[in-house]
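Following up on my earlier thread - several people asked me to post the actual chain instead of describing it. Fair enough. Here it is, all 204 residues.
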Amino acid sequence: MKILLLADLHGDKEVLDKLGGKAGKYERVIVAGDLGDDEYIEKLLGTSDNIYWIPGNIERLEICGELQEKCIHGKKIELGNGFNIVGFGFSGPTPFGTPGELSEEEIYAQMKGLPIDNKTILVTHSPPYGIMDEVSVGIHAGSKSIRKIMEEKKPLVLACGHIHQAEGKEKAGDTTVVHIPQGNMHKGILLEINGHIHLDVEKL
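Reply from S.P.:
Thanks for posting it. Predicted structure:
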């Protein structure tokens, strides 16, 4: 199974064109937040029927309810062989006062009941605090609640976006954290499942 992970598209029109021709080569395409405005999201979902998404901090808190199709915020998708994907969107507070922000208390309260296990690929918009989340030297913008959930529930993989300066992967306890490249740079992460998990950068 091949899954393409994208994040932080920010309304990039070239991504729509590229996905229209390539999305079908993956079993699923999952976009980890900050897609763009409502019209862009609808166009993106219209490029292929295998695209799923979670909201980021630039999306409105109500957006999943209004554009429910393929929104996996707070939901679980079974992938076979015990593997599964769980999504959780939005972000903690930012200096920019964006619409899709939750308090750390709200994030933890909403995530603690999610069915996350050691075969879960947890897709969040925000990174866990302290892991590929520096916005400048010594200043971290990740979520402490997501970090706590990761340490408690031990998902196999945590894939995230949000911090444009970061990309790569890092092992944190039992979890591999992968920071998805900024999507409007026309890169993502290819996640392959063949009895085990393989992660690599994928160009659009």
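The chain has one domain: 2-203. That should answer part of your original question.
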